[in-house]
Amino acid sequence: RFKWSDVTGRLKLPKDAFKTPSGWLWDDDWFIQPTISTHEVDCGLTTFQNDVFENHLRQPGGSWETAETFWTDVANEEAQHKNDIWCPTGWVWTDTWTVDLSRAVDEEGFEYCLDQNHGGYVPVEKTYHLSRRRRWVRNRKR
Q1: pTM of structure
Q2: For residues 140 and 43, what is the distance between their CA atoms, to the nearest angstrom?
Q3: What is the largest CA-CA distance in the chain?
Q4: Which label site among 76, 104, 122, 141 has the fewest CB atoms less than 10 Å from its CB?
């Protein structure tokens, strides 16, 4: 993808090629807007990796159980079950859902923390951890 491009990422648009209409002036110099884009997360990309987290909770001294909100996104917001996530029109899946073992996780792909609402996940389970999650990923391309 070019540093400055159209929405597809395929058409190079140099910064100095942007011209104002006759009688108009730029309000200020260029800057990076730190807010979340209103575009889709895969906008302009030709490959993309979907991810979703599987969550478990336990009571102190208890065993792991399915969390009430079993599937979440990286921000811990409720998400669809991985098998309910469909490939968007114009895209094709290139693989199946797999546990992401490329991060700091245990051999089953889990990371642990005291409370899933506060984060601070670590790869090693301790007796005081009451929350765990693992990331499932699936790739797609245009």
Answers
A1: 0.72
A2: 13
A3: 71
A4: 104
